[in-house]
Amino acid sequence: MYKIVTKRELVPHINLFEFEAKEVAEKAKPGQFVILRIDETGERIPLTIAGADVGKGTITVVCHEVGKTTKKLGALRAGDSILDLAGPLGKPAKIENFGTVLCVGGGVMIAPLYYQAKALHEAGNKIIGVIGARTANQLIYEEEMRQVCDELYVATDDGTKGYKGLDFLKDLLKERKIDRAIVLGSIITMKLVSEFTRPHGIPTIVNLVPIMVDGMGMCGACRVTVGGKTMFACVNGPDFDGHQVDFEELMARLKMYTAQEKLAFVFYEKGERSS
Amino acid sequence: MKKGGEELRIGVFVCHCGFNIGGVVDVPAVVEYARTLPGVVYAKDHLYMCSPGGLALIKESIKKYNLNRVVVASCTPATHEPLFREACEEAGLNKYLFEMVNIREQCSWVHMHQPKEATEKAKDLVRMAVAKASYLEPQMEPELEIKPSALVIGGGIAGMTASMSLARQGFTVHLVEKESELGGMLRYLYKLYPTGRDAAELLRETVAAVKANPRIRLHMSALVREVKGFFGNFDVTLQRRGSDETEQIKVGTIIVATGAEAFKPTGMYGYGEYENVITQLELEQLLRKGALKKPEKVVMIQCVGAREKTGPRTYCSRTCCMAALNNALLLKEMYPNVEVTILFRDIQTYGEYEDFYLKARENFVQFIRYDQDNPPVVTESNGKLTVKVYDLYSNAEIELKSDLVVLSTPLVQHEAGRQLAPILKVPLGSDEFFFEAHPKLRPVDFSSEGIYVCGTAHGPKDVTESIAQAYAAATRAAIPMAVRTVKAEAVKASVDPEICVGCGACAVSCIFSAIELLPFGQPHIVEANCKGCGVCSAECPMGAMQLLHFKDQQIVAAVEALLKPKKLKGVSEKFEPIIVCFACKWCSYAAADLAGVSRIQYPPNIRIIRVPCSGRVDVLHVLKAFLNGADGVIITGCLIGDCHYIDGNLKAKSRVEVMKDSLQALGINPERLEIGFASSSEGQKFAMMMTNFVERIRKLGPNPYRLEKKREEEAKVV
User: What sign has the CA pseudo-torsion B197, B203, B208, B213?
Assistant: First the structure.
């Protein structure tokens, strides 16, 4: 059992959790993820690590309530426990002094982006941060990001905060010399930013979290096509070259089980009669 | 009764339709019942609600009683909804505040000998419609302006014919051809059947006319690179082949006339290996150039690479039998002593083309029928060809010496066509040809509005048929361009950003590219592309995406209104199944109408809820039906392949499969859920489906959730 030490609602439907997981905390590196399960009949969900505290023996994840499991998780409180938490999984992100790094984060993924940006900042990089959400009241981690970024830009899809959309990034890329870009966010965010950086030849790393089951390269559920080759996000990634990823396929694969997911969610909302 | 701050004032109008409804259904009882329903302030019957008197009654009542919702219980909305909606508008009521109930095709005509049950059903349907009407919202229909110019892609006979037709009607035409000259396939043909006219002559005349027309702008050696915008206002980027040079044009409509190419049968029957094995098209080119060396023994093999058992070429290419017969006769005419043998699987000379077959026989063209599983074999030795064929009529192997083997190969989609489809966001069928919106209702339209198809881009056709279809496509494109504006449907997707989590399921599910994801995942609805199928609503895991006029709330209101009063007091009570049918408004609803018109009787246990597409039916709707006690739920859609939204019915089918797996967990037998498909001409089949389903449910007994005790337990859990 893994105890929830802290639970905080950052914005409606996005929750931060600190789990007591000493062994995971000791090994966790930015870019890696954990797979957790609430109870015995629960679904296994991958969550990208947003922080680790070796002293306290805790790891941080931030989770958006988007279906049955994440809603169930969101209903838990500090002091509650979940059945299991496996990790850290996947390869850690490359942290070294690249020069100037553009860090783009969208939605709930700004939290794990912060974990990486902080490490990159400490490694001596100049950090240009871009964070965004669909709308102003969904934006998280702005203050945290400000602390580790030399410059920080904020954007929303509806223009309720900062820039409207990401088109401003095109100009930014023309004006600045950027040595590396990392993008954590929804598939559309990663796809779009990769398209923007491509003509400038900026190495662009995206962090993919497709549907996963075991997270150890056995099941093949997290197949992604990168540069025409089939890769497993869990063991070959989760970081990949954004200019090589087949995002269309990734999107289609992510939506393979929408009917099942919706059904589980509707049942759950009806009073948890089936799992 | 209030909904959203506004007091509901619903008027219910029940039609006798002479004796058609009134002869079976107790109309006064339905009216009396309607008056008791929540929100109803006025209810009245009329002998013919669609008559001037009936319409006047509706209009006057709207004003007199200040009605803000209108429900008409009469015949099918397929024919009469526009009329009643118009009456509402004339009385100042937004037409989307109108709801229609079909108590003729669904009650009196299909339960003619069960007046009591038919009346009960009519009451249920009225109650459901009133419940849905309570949640209806007014909608605006945006007007789109249509630019009076067209893009015609492809300069073959179809594209040139369509361009000429549009230009003569006064529209500007941009004709784009990927090659450096016009003509397409016509440049390779010899004599056209059935007239025997020179293809070269037709080509010369047509090209001259196209070039001389000042309204046609030619874009030669050009490709369509990008199409943005929507019906009436497409922004098209053209690119000159082999250069980066691009040009932007703006058009209102687009016609796809990109043609096809002949299948290259490399590796089949020695093609590509033996010099004297050629295709039918190559034979025509030789004849056209006068370059054919006089042959003595010609063997033609039909269906080479066509009508295959699997793969994209399972189709009959339609033109090859006639091309072979035509060329065989031409050879006979040129060289009376030439022996021509046609190896065929079936000769398909439809219509008057049968004359060619008879004429070929009269002229001693030999026909040998071969077996697909034991096809002919072509070998060569010392430059002489030998064809071995097993003749199905004489049950013997025959060996034919030959100096020319001609292979009839099918027309197939070309690479340029395959590349164009995603640019236009229009579908290709399993045969890889462009796929029309509906084979009968919209045969030259794509389901995306403002884009049309003609010629062999759409499937194999001869020149005659391509020309006819080109005129059809030009006419279809001309209608909106002549009218200059069209009213767009108001039934469109709409997203609640407060509920949306930005997962993108809606965008992935939309086959019309009507949902774009903004950079951080917020869906943006491209209204001009939205067809109103509602697939995205059903796919949205959060209920954030809703189809206007068919929102979850509106559909669930109808479901609950039907079922809530229907609980059984105990197991011993006589059981009559209550079944909810979600019927798509196209074929399956039309099939139910046809069952009615044909007076095909089926059990009165079905209550139809009309939805735009079976793909709109959400797991939530089905679950609500079962948890409120429906004994069975059946979803009906168009036949597979005939969906008016391309694949909504397939999505519904896979959703039903998923739901079946999960119903068991709720203690509901998965057999209580079904999906069926019917075309609009299958009234009999629809009635059979309903009869069989009612029988199945009758055997299964009541849904446990319909028993009052069980319902109470469930109410406690929830």
Answer: positive
Neighbours of B565 (CB within 10 A): 10
Average pLDDT (B307-315) is 94
> Which of B520, B560, B621 best probes binding to A when mutated, by most A CB atoms within 10 angstroms?
B520
> B217 - beta bridge partners?
B174
What gap in Å lies between CA A139 and CA B542, rounded to an integer?
20
Q: How far is CA B588 from CA B104, B516, B581, B686, B690, in A?
A: 16, 31, 10, 8, 12
Q: Which DSSP string corresponds to B206-264?
A: HHHHHHH-TTEEEETTEEEEEEEEETTEEEEEEEETTS--EEEEEESEEEE----EE--
Measured in whole angstroms, the distance separating CA B186 from the mean position of its chain's CA atoms is 30
> Which pairing describes strands B485-487 and B366-369: parallel, antiparallel, or unpaired?
unpaired
Ranges assigned E (strand) in B292-358 = 297-301, 339-344
Burial (CB count <10 Å: 0-12, 13-18, 19+), residue B343: buried
Please report the sign of the dihedral spanned by the C-alpha atoms of residue B537, residue B539, residue B543, residue B544. negative
Q: Kindly state the average pLDDT of the residues B150-171.
A: 98
What torsion, rounded to 10 degrees, do the Cα atoms B520, B621, B528, B235 define? 50
Cβ contacts of B411 within 8 Å, gap of 6 or more: B260, B261, B262, B263, B317, B319, B456, B459, B460
Measuring CA to CA, how many Å separate B621 from each of A96, B135, B559, B634, B659? 53, 16, 8, 12, 11
pLDDT of residue A252: 82
* CA count, 13 A, side-chain hemisphere, B487: 6
How are beta strands B10-15 and B6-7 bridged, if at all? unpaired
Could you give the C-alpha distances from B329 to B322, B334, B339, in angstroms and in order? 10, 9, 11
A252 to chain B: which residues are within 8 Å by CB? 508
* pLDDT tens-digit series, residues B523-580: 999 887 888 999 999 999 889 999 999 999 999 999 999 998 887 766 667 889 999 9
Query: B41: which residues sit within 8 A by CB, 6+ positions away?
Result: B9, B10, B11, B65, B67
Who among A258, A266, A273 is closest to B539 (CB)? Answer: A258
Judged by average pLDDT, the poorest of A98-112, A203-217, B117-131, B553-567 is A203-217
Condensed to tens digits (0 to 9), the pLDDT of residues A13-29 reads 899 999 999 999 999 99
Averaged confidence pLDDT in chain B: 93
State whether the Cα torsion B492-B497-B500-B506 is positive or negative.
positive
Listed in sequence order, the residues at least 6 apart from B203 whose beta carbon sits closer than 8 Å to its beta carbon are: B157, B182, B183, B186, B187
Question: What average pLDDT does range A246-260 have in this prediction?
Answer: 82
Q: B107-130 burial, b for 16+ CB within 10 Å, e for fewer?
A: bbbbbeebeebbbbbbbbbbbbbb
pLDDT at site A255: 77
Phi, psi of B582 (to 5 degrees): -90, 110
Round to whole Å and give the CA distance between B455 and B362.
Answer: 33
Q: How far apart are CA B174 and CA B236, in angstroms?
A: 11
Which chain A residues are within 8 Å of B497, Cβ to Cβ?
134-135, 158
Quickly list H helices, chain A.
22-27, 68-74, 110-122, 142-148, 168-175, 187-197, 233-236, 247-254, 258-269
pLDDT at B1: 60
Q: How far is A65 from chain B (nearest CA, A)?
A: 8
Cα-to-chain-centroid distance, residue B105 = 24
Is residue B428 within 8 Å of B418, Cβ to Cβ? Answer: yes
> Is B521's CB within 8 Å of A258's CB?
no
CA distance B718 to B705: 13
CB contact under 8 A, A165 and B518: yes
Residues 117 to 146 of A: which have CB under 8 A from any B CB?
132-135
Question: Is B613 in contact with B583 (CB distance < 8 Å)?
Answer: no
Is the pLDDT at A275 greater than 50? The verdict is: no
